Amino acid sequence: MSEFELIRKYFSHTVEERTDVVLGVGDDCALLQPPQGCQLAVSIDTLVEGVHFFPDIDPFLLGHKALAVNLSDLAAMGARPAWVTLALALPDSDPRWLQGFSQGFAALAHIHNVQLVGGDTTRGPLTITAQVHGFIEPEKALRRDAASVDDLVYVTGTLGDAGLALRMIQGSVSADDYLPSLRDRLERPQPRIAEGLAVKGLARGGIDISDGLISDLGHICRASDLGAKLFLDQVPLSEGVGRYINQGGDWGVPLASGDDYELCLTVPAENKDEFEARMQDTGIPFTLVGTMEQELGIRCQLPGGGLLDPLPGGYEHFSHE
To answer: What range(s) does the PurM-like C-terminal domain occupy (predicted)?
Structure first.
């Protein structure tokens, strides 16, 4: 089928319809009308077969993940999602794959009221690029450069599930009964949109944990010219990851393996009670894991005392060639 037939069949009718979309899929450009008084938050991510996902992944889950990792960036800044564009490089126009992918993409878009407004398709190695657009009120964005000394450091959810699943699938760690639930965290991450929206005006710094807590909190530290101290006995772990650490003491899984897509937020101490009340209303677990400090760098205190040394590093694409 041609490029335009592909778009019409699989993507033109699987999108939300928003009133702020003047002209969507099907023309040279989309025409969009941002709400008055809001800033536009924009983020883009690319997923490459063999780097970000396994070739045998369920295409429905891949459609979900392609949008989820982008929505996670909007969540990290407290932005409300609105629009998305999608570019696909496909080795062939496999109807089964396209049907599953478009359904997974559309299902998550429906949950967060996101409309697909344009994109591109071409032939090539399987590569997926999505760009999301959202709205944020001026001065309300959760920015990496906004943390202050003595801010409390919180994370949502549990850390390390996706990283442990990856190790099990690759065979570097023996697979066990926890693999199905861990793999679900790897292949179907949930963007914390409601949580990011709930704490605007209370949290200061924010980032989504895509490359590991050490690496991503490190971005906040560098942007804010600060350091941080983490208490490892407070890092939230699922039962599977907790058992893995108890067996071998490898803190690299929850601290550095990435693909968690949870939020890391810094919160002034005076906002603690209201912040925690709002987070409780979302129904998603959250945990106080550390504090921001004047001394540069990140220090991780072990459960038995002392500091973790050396620190595990997060994922870097061009250091793994």
So the answer is: 149-295
Residue stretches of the annotated binding site for ATP = 119-120, 144, 210
pLDDT bracket for residue 321 (50, 70, 90)? very low
Q: Which residues carry a binding-site annotation?
A: 28, 43, 45, 52, 73, 119-120, 144, 208, 210-211, 259, 315
Residues 160 and 227 in one domain: yes
* Confidence band, pLDDT 50/70/90 cuts, at residue 27: confident
pLDDT per residue as tens digits for the range 98-118: 999 999 999 999 999 999 998
Same domain, 237 and 294: yes
Co-location of 126 and 162 in the same domain: no
Q: Are residues 122 and 247 in the same domain?
A: no
Number of domains in the chain: 2
At 129-148, the pLDDT tens digits run 999 999 999 999 999 999 99
Q: Cα–Cα distances in Å, from 105 out to 2, 12, 112, 194?
A: 21, 12, 11, 19
**How far apart, in Å, are the Cα atoms of 233 and each of 69, 219, 240?**
28, 22, 16
Q: Are residues 300 and 153 in the same domain?
A: yes
From the annotation, which residues make up the binding site for substrate? Answer: 52, 259, 315
Annotated binding-site residue numbers for Mg(2+):
28, 43, 45, 73, 120, 208, 211
AA identity, residue 36: Q
pLDDT at 313: 72
Instruction: Please give the residue range of the domain that contains residue 241.
Output: 144-310
The CATH number of the domain holding residue 172 is: 3.90.650.10
Peptide bond into 310 cis (omega under 30): yes
Model pLDDT for residues 221-250, shown as the tens digit of each residue:
999 999 999 999 999 999 999 999 999 899
- Dist CA 113 CA 86 (whole Å): 16
Shared domain for 132 and 149, answered yes or no, is no
